[in-house]
Design a protein that fits this description.
Elements (H helix, E strand, L loop, with lengths): L1 H16 L3 H11 L5 H8 L5 H40 L18 H15 L3 E2 L5 E3 H4 L10 H5 L4 E5 L5 E4 L5 H10 L3 E10 L10 E11 L4 H16 L6 E8 L2 E14 L2 E4 L8 E12 L1 H6 L8 E8 H9 L12 H7 L18
Parallel strand pairs: 1-5
Antiparallel strand pairs: 2-4, 3-4, 5-6, 6-11, 7-8, 8-9, 8-10, 10-11
Helix pairs in contact: 1-4, 2-4, 3-4, 5-11
Amino acid sequence: MTDITSQTEAALAAIAAAGSLDALEAERLETLGKKGWVSLALKTLGGMSPEERTAAAPAIQSARAAIAEALDAKKAALEAAALEEQLARETIDLTLPAVAAPKGSVHPVSQVMDELAEIFADLGFAVATGPEIEDDWHNFTALNMDETHPARAMHDTFYFPDKTNEGRDVLLRTHTSPVQIRAMLDQGAPIRIIAPGRVYRSDSDATHTPMFHQVEGLVIDRDIHLGHLKWTLETFFKAFFEREDITLRLRPSYFPFTEPSVEVDVGYSTEGGRRVVGGHGDAPGHAWMELGGSGMVNARVLEFAGLDSKEWQGFAFGLGIDRIAMLKYGMNDLRAFFDGDPRWLQHYGFSPFDQPTLSAGVGARA
Ligand code: PHE
C-alpha cells in the first residue's frame, strides 16, 4: 500500500518534471504502458481472493486515475508550449521592405502582349489561344493551302516525325492563323478575337529568329468590310503608339486565306538613326514600313471552319509583335529579345508593377 503511494508520488513528480513530449511518453510507458508497474499491479488483482481484492483495488485504481490525469494535463501543456515556441520562431515581419529581393523585370514582348490585350479588350475583342504544336490541317489545309500549295514551302516549316491519330502531319505552327480556325470551330459566329503567341519558322538573321511572336485578329459578323479592318487597325495603332498622326496604307497583296488580301504599312520617319512611326509615308523625310498582313477571310476558310459563307463574312489580320515592340521601344536587334541577357532585360524590361491600362497609359515606362 505505502509502496503504491510512494511509487505514485514519484511518478507524478516525474510527469511534472518531464521537459519534452518524449520524456513524458517514457514516463507513460513506465506506468500505464503494457509493462508499466500500474498495469502489472492491476493484473495481480485477478489472482487475489475477493477480500484481498476489495482491500487492494481502490489504491491501485486511484493511482492509475491520478497518473492518467497528470499525463493528459502535462501533454496538453507541453503541446501548447511547443506551438507557442513555433509561432514565435516563425514570425514574419510583413512591414519589412523587400530590399534584398532580386529585381525581375517584365520582358518587352510580354509587356506588349498585355498592351495589345488591353487595347483590343476595349474594342470588344476576347483573347483566344491555340497550340504551338499544330497539325497541318489547321496550319495549312483549312486556311486554303492544300498539300500542293506553294505557300506551304514558303513557310519554312519545322515538322515532327509523328502523325496525329487522323494521319495529319505534326508541325510547329508557322503563324497564329490556325487559331482563326480553332476559334470559329469552337465558338461559331459572330466572333471577335485576338490571338497573340509564338510562331516558328526555320529562318535566322538580324531580323528573323526561328521563334517569334504574332498577334492574329479575327472579326466575323454579317456586314463586315475592309473599312472596318482599316479603322480597327488605325484605332489600335493610335492607342498602342500613343499618337494621333498614325497613317496606314493598305497595299494589295496575296494570302491564300484572305480575299482580297492587303498588306498593312505605317508611315514613319527616321530621327537620330531610330525609326519613329507617325506621319504620311509619302511626305518628305518619311517612308512606309510593313507591319503585317490582312484581308477579308476567304469564303473557303469560312466553310472549312463550319460557317455558312453566304451568311457570315469578316476580316483577319496578323501582326509581328516583336516588330511593333522594337518600333515602340527603340530596339534594333531582334536576336537580343531571346538571348536572356540580364543587362538587356534590365535596360529594356518593365516593372511588374507597371500594368498597362488604358487610363494610365499602355506604354508607361518604369
Ligand atoms: N498569317 C499571315 C502570315 O503569317 C499573316 C496574315 C494573317 C495575313 C491574317 C492575312 C490575314 O504571314
